[in-house]
């Protein structure tokens, strides 16, 4: 539909038909029949598999679930009053508003950039390549890219790296988002302190020792850190010393509080000595046996605190494919309104994946449009002293506008029917469905199927593309 | 004297060349190329990740990212492909060419795609010939009808066509629903509007005098079509065929509906079925996805120019 070199030629009026000056062999009628026969296979095929079914769908959408009884507009009423279908409408609206705009923008940027480099052909092939993949494959690939686990998903892995610069995870992370608590780690001589810390239940003074037992510490973590057998630290005058150890012995699984030979010290733990008023009187780190010592401790009583940084879980991953996490604040709204006005994260993630697929398409079409622009007009603008940006903004863009509209419209039609990427990328429970998915579900995946409802949804899709049909017809004439 | 001059000229030449290289390495140019290079790298990452995941041991997927390959390349293995093709120890996927296996899906996909492509290209060329060179009344109206069909979503047809197949069976006893021909018939129907549109636009550029000359020499319509129009229209037919091939090869929805109940699956159905199982095995999915993209990628790189032309002409689809 874009007017480019040879790709599309608009029809001309049939004025070029020569008068039949010569009597041609075969006769007039024979010839007409001949060329009419050529269109017959296509015409019959289209009438049977597109034309008639279209009429049948219009009829079915006013009939009941097995197309036996006329029900008027009942199916449409159901569509506009069923929360699940309204959610698919919302998703379609998000797709139609967000995706075409961004894909056109990306295509424009790429098309302009490629005009300035020597390896444009290679770059174009790289950007264009995802179109050769099935949307099924792309959905599966992006499903792993957006995986919640930073060890699996590329996006979360990147975010984890960044996040770890600012708040590194502790050596013994407690995953609070998975329901684990720091307080549950306390086994012997410990209680939960303020702000995710643990502190000794008993107070200590200089010359005394403390024995602090933890459970729920992963033996692999200890092994990696290089922890050794737990050894009770000897008391010394003027010092507060102690032991933090893994208070779980495989040989005595129910015994707490005793230090067995098969128990390791919790190494590398940050420990703080708290004064009577709760202020810090010094801090240290446990050695490989789990021992710590504070020297030069004054009189008075102290508590020992295991810092919260030890147990900080760091970044645990964003659930990009969540259908409930909304990008817009919807608290305070009714449940239906929440469902309708939230923008689920999964929609955004899928739109990003879809941009990866289709940006090359937009780039190629816009690139062809750029190449066919009138060079003289651009030259004239430059000679008249317009800057690069002015030329682009005031000359290139207006001349390119029809091409941009074609890309926008094509992409709107495309995402109205978006199906493959959703069923392959989004978890089936995530409420990320669109009209096309709902149509398939009601027509084929549910049992018993509801032909009336599915046809009504299909008809809505058809009505939505009708303006485009009108535009196309007008342009062709 | 002359040798001194020559040396001087050489030095000048070297200096000029160095200046040219320096110009090419201007900072703004470097930055621009750097940015575009980064975009290209970013765009390739998903494909690279899929390829690498498919060559990593199955058990590693949930433990470490594919990028650990950069530091530990020895983890790469062909085992996923061996398992998927010949033995599938930790799942119930059939192997070899048994129905439902990946190789069977490959064959099934080809058995749908090739007829659908050939039929669309042939029928579209015939119809376009009739629309451009025929002399019957109403050609414009028919063409406008085809333009109107260009953007009709296939959703409007799947239920009635499924019913049509069912009534065809009750009339003749021939099963179409759930068979490969049933899928092909539907694909062809929804490939035709674009096919006729593209071929017609190309044929209008063929001089009519060429055909008139043939007619005067006594050539029939079929001869003109075969001997004159088809050879001239080959570039457009190639664009259409490649476009249609990739379109049908990558389809999921039509296969999902019209291959319902068939033990043979298309490649996209194979992959889709894997994600729907409770314990989705990503090793199967990644290796299967790699196998499924080989053919369209090969065609894409071999015929990129024709493919782009088809996309440009098909911006309406």
Structural account:
The complex is a heterodimer of chains A (477) and B (317). Chain A has 477 residues and is an alpha+beta fold. Chain A is built from 14 helices and nine strands. Chain B is mainly α. Chain B folds into two domains: 2-82, no CATH class; 91-316, MetI-like fold, CATH 1.10.3720. The mean pLDDT of chain B is 86.
Structure described in brief:
The complex is a heterodimer of chains A (477) and B (317). Chain A is an alpha+beta fold and 477 residues long.
Gross morphology of chain B is flat
Average pLDDT level of chain B: 86
Assign a percent range to the helix content of chain B: over 70%
Using the CA coordinates, give the radius of gyration of chain A.
35 Å
Can you give the mean pLDDT of chain A? Answer: 84
User: Terminal Cα separation of chain A, in Å?
Assistant: 13 Å
Keywords, separated by commas or semicolons:
heterodimer, A: 477 residues, alpha+beta, 5-stranded antiparallel β-sheet, 4-stranded mixed β-sheet, 14 helices, elongated, disordered N terminus, B: 317 residues, mainly alpha, MetI-like fold, 2 domains, flat
Write the layout of secondary structure elements.
The complex is a heterodimer of chains A (477) and B (317).
Chain A: H1 28-60, H2 74-79, H3 83-114, H4 120-128, H5 135-145, H6 154-166, E1 186-188, E2 190-192, E3 198-200, E4 209-214, H7 219-225, E5 240-246, E6 270-274, E7 280-285, E8 291-294, E9 303-306, H8 335-341, H9 345-371, H10 375-383, H11 388-416, H12 420-425, H13 435-445, H14 451-476
Helix pairs in contact in A: 3-8, 3-9, 3-11, 4-9, 5-9, 9-11, 10-11, 13-14
Chain B: H1 2-24, H2 27-54, H3 79-85, H4 102-133, H5 139-149, H6 155-172, H7 180-203, H8 208-216, H9 221-232, H10 234-249, H11 253-258, H12 267-276, H13 282-302, H14 304-313
Helix pairs in contact in B: 2-13, 4-7, 4-10, 5-7, 7-10, 10-14, 12-13
């Amino acid at each position: 539909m874009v007017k480019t070199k040879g790709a599309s030629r608009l029809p001309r009026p049939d004025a070029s038909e020569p008068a039949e000056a010569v009597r041609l062999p075969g006769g007039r009628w024979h010839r007409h029949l001949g060329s009419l026969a050529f269109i017959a296979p296509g015409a019959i095929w289209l009438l049977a598999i597109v034309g008639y079914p279209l009429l049948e769908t219009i009829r079915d959408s006013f009939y009941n679930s097995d197309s036996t009884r006329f029900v008027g507009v009942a199916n449409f009423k159901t569509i506009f009053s069923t929360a699940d279908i309204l959610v698919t409408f919302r998703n379609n609206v998000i797709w139609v508003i967000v995706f075409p705009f961004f894909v056109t923008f990306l295509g424009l940027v790429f098309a302009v950039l490629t005009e300035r480099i020597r390896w444009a052909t290679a770059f174009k092939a790289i950007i264009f390549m995802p179109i050769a993949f099935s949307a099924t494959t792309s959905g599966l690939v992006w499903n792993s890219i957006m995986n919640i686990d930073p060890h699996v998903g590329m996006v979360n892995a990147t975010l984890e790296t960044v996040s770890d610069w600012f708040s590194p995870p502790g050596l013994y992370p407690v995953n609070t988002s998975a329901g684990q608590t720091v307080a549950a780690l306390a086994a012997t001589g410990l209680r939960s302190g303020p702000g995710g810390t643990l502190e000794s239940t008993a107070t200590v003074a200089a010359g005394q020792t403390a024995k602090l037992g933890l459970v729920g510490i992963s033996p692999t973590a200890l092994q990696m850190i290089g922890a050794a057998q737990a050894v009770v630290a000897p008391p010394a005058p003027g010092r507060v010393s102690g032991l933090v150890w893994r208070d779980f012995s495989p040989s005595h699984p129910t015994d707490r509080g005793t230090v067995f030979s098969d128990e390791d010290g919790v190494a590398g733990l940050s420990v703080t000595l708290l004064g009577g008023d709760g202020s810090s009187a010094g801090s240290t780190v446990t050695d490989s046996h789990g021992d710590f010592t504070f020297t030069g401790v004054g009189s008075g009583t102290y508590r020992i605190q295991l810092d919260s940084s030890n147990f900080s879980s760091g970044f645990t991953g964003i659930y990009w494919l969540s259908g409930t996490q909304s990008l817009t604040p919807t608290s305070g709204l009714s449940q239906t309104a929440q469902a309708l006005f939230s923008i689920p994260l999964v929609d955004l993630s899928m739109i990003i994946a879809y941009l990866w697929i289709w940006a090359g398409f937009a780039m190629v079409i816009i690139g062809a449009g750029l190449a066919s622009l009138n060079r003289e007009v651009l030259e004239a603008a430059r000679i008249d002293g317009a800057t690069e940006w002015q030329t682009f903004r005031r000359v290139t863009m207006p001349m390119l506008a029809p091409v941009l509209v074609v890309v926008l419209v094509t992409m709107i039609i495309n995402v109205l029917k978006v199906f493959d990427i959703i069923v392959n990328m989004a978890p089936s429970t995530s409420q990320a469905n669109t009209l096309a998915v709902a149509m398939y579900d009601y027509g084929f995946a549910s049992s018993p199927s509801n032909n009336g409802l599915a046809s009504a949804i299909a008809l809505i899709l058809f009505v939505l593309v009708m303006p485009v049909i009108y535009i196309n017809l007008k342009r062709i004439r | 004297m002359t040798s001194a001059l020559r040396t001087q000229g050489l030095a000048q030449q070297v200096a000029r060349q160095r200046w040219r290289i320096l110009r090419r390495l201007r900072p703004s140019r470097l930055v621009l190329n750097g940015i575009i290079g980064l975009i290209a790298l970013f765009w390739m990452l998903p494909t690279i990740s899929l390829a690498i995941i498919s060559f990593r041991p199955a058990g590693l997927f949930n433990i470490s990212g594919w990028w650990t390959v950069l530091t530990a390349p020895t983890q790469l293995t062909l085992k996923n492909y061996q398992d998927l093709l010949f033995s599938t120890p930790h799942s119930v996927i059939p192997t070899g060419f048994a129905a439902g296996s990946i190789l069977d899906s490959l064959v099934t996909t080809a058995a749908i795609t090739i007829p659908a492509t050939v039929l669309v290209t042939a029928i579209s060329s015939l119809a376009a010939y009739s629309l451009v060179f025929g002399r019957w009344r109403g050609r414009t109206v028919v063409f406008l009808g085809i333009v109107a069909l260009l953007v009709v979503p296939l959703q409007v047809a799947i239920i009635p066509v499924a019913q049509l197949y069912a009534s065809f069976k009750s009339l003749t006893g021939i099963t179409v629903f759930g068979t490969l021909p049933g899928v092909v018939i539907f694909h062809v129907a929804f490939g035709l509007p674009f096919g006729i549109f593209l071929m017609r636009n190309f044929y209008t550029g063929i001089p009519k005098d060429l055909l008139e000359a043939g007619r005067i020499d006594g050539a029939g319509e079929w001869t003109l079509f075969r001997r004159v129009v088809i050879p001239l229209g080959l570039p457009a037919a190639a664009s259409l065929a490649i476009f249609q091939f990739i379109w049908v090869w990558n389809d999921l929805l039509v296969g999902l509906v019209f291959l319902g109940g068939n033990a043979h699956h298309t490649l996209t159905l194979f992959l889709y079925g894997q994600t729907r199982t409770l314990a989705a095995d990503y090793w199967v999915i990644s290796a299967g996805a790699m196998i499924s993209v080989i053919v369209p990628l090969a065609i894409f790189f071999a015929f990129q120019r024709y493919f782009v032309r088809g996309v440009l002409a098909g911006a309406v689809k």
